[in-house]
């Protein structure tokens, strides 16, 4: 394991239960998820039998005696259930895992992901998908609404603007970003890299006070506690006075048609792949993103997940 006091057996080893360690230094959501996924049968992502199509393991840079942590699991003893290799998996090592300080131990064949592997925020959508497939679950309860714009659409979100500009789904724009962090190689072409979609709005010719609005559908949490979190990825370059406002409209019940609108958060200044996560308490809701005097570039991947 990467973390000294954090460990777990892979899969069911003992019939009457087994230990895993989430002691001091391990009490973080992603680390607990990491160790529990081991217990549920997950190996590390970079141990997949197809890993050589996505990463290079530099054994010369691994601490002597730690090479076993990079063992490749064969196709005869594992399955991926058809889920593509996931650089953003919570089960993936970081680039310098077990390094002897002579350099990185893992090199991503797609260089855009070199500094992204090893995230310890939480399970990725692909992690949840593979877990569902492994245990024959019909769907994940983790995500009530997810939009990565991967199909070139806005996921049935409505939009409006005060000014001449509007949102558009694109694969690239002048000024970046140079890559979409949610995009994975397809196995063909330029390291298998497909074009990643994101939404973009430009007001290079806009006026102060102009705004562009994006609004989700109404969503109802499944759990009795009615706790929901909202997270999204945001890329912004431009005037530091620009604002991104996140509004929530809360409905008391199914007969409440107007709801109560409240401002949840406001983001100002420049941010690169900023990740915002907040807890929400409500019965029914929809999310509204309003950008005032938006900068020449803004980028979003929106994900709504249960806690």
Structure, explained:
The chain has 307 residues and is mainly beta. Helices cover 7% and strands 30% of the residues. It contains 2 helices and 15 strands. It has helices at 29-39, 125-134, and strands at residues 6-8, 20-22, 55-57, 106-108, 143-147, 158-162, 168-170, 198-200, 211-215, 227-237, 243-251, 260-268, 271-281, 284-292, 297-306. A 5-stranded antiparallel beta sheet has the order 6-9-14-11-12, with no helix packed on it. It has a 4-stranded antiparallel beta sheet with strand order 5-15-10-13, with no helix packed on it. β11 (243-251) and β12 (260-268) form a beta hairpin. The longest helix has 11 residues, at 29-39. It is globular, with a radius of gyration of 21 Å. The model is unreliable at 183-193, 272-287 and 289-307 (pLDDT under 50). Residues 1-138 form the Peptidase M12A domain. Residues 145-270 form the MAM domain. The active site is at residue 35. Pfam families: Astacin (PF01400), MAM (PF00629).
Offer a few descriptive terms.
307 residues; mainly beta; five-stranded antiparallel beta sheet; four-stranded antiparallel beta sheet; 2 helices; 15 strands; 7% helix; globular; disordered C terminus; Metalloendopeptidase; membrane; metalloprotease; MetalloPept_cat_dom_sf; protease
- Strand and helix order: EEHEEHEEEEEEEEEEE
Question: Which structural class do the helices and strands define?
Answer: mainly beta
The low-confidence runs, each spanning 5 or more residues with pLDDT under 50, are 183-193, 272-287, 289-307
- The percentage of residues in β strands lies in 25-35%
Q: Helical region count?
A: 2
Distance between the termini: 25 Å
How does the overall form come out from the CA principal axes? globular
Largest sheet: 5 strands, antiparallel
User: What is the CA-atom radius of gyration, in angstroms?
Assistant: 21 Å
Helix content: under 10%
Strand order of the largest sheet: 6-9-14-11-12
The tally of beta strands, per DSSP, is 15
**Average pLDDT value?**
77
Transmembrane segments: 280-302
Organism: Xenoophorus captivus
Pfam families: Astacin (PF01400), MAM (PF00629)
Binding site for Zn(2+): 34, 38, 44
């Amino acid at each position: 394991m990467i973390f000294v006091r954090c460990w777990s057996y892979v899969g069911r080893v003992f019939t009457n239960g087994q230990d895993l360690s989430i002691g001091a230094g391990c009490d973080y959501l992603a680390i607990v998820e990491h160790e529990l996924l081991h217990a549920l049968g997950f190996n590390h992502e970079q141990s997949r039998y197809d890993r050589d199509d996505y990463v290079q393991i530099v054994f010369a840079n691994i601490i002597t005696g730690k090479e076993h942590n990079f063992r490749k699991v064969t196709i005869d003893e594992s399955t991926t259930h058809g889920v593509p290799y996931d650089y953003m998996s919570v089960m993936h090592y970081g680039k310098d895992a077990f390094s002897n300080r002579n350099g990185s131990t893992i090199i991503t064949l797609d260089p855009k992901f070199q500094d992204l592997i090893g995230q310890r925020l939480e399970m990725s959508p692909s992690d949840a998908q593979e877990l569902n497939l492994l245990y024959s679950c019909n769907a994940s309860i983790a995500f009530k609404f997810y939009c990565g714009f991967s199909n070139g659409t806005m996921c049935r979100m409505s939009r409006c603007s005060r000014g001449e500009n509007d949102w558009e789904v694109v694969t690239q724009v002048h000024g970046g970003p140079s890559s979409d962090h949610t995009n994975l190689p397809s196995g063909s072409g330029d390291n298998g890299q497909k074009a990643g979609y994101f939404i973009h709005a430009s007001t290079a010719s806009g006026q102060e006070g102009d705004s562009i609005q994006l609004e989700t559908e109404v969503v109802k949490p499944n759990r009795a506690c009615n706790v929901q979190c909202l997270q999204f990825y945001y890329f912004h370059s431009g005037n530091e006075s620009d604002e991104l406002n996140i509004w929530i409209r809360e409905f008391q019940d199914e007969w409440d048609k107007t709801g109560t609108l409240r401002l949840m958060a406001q983001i100002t200044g420049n941010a690169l792949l900023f990740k915002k996560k907040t807890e929400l308490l409500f019965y029914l809701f929809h999310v509204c993103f309003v950008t005032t005097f938006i900068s020449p570039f803004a980028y979003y991947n929106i994900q709504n997940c249960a806690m």
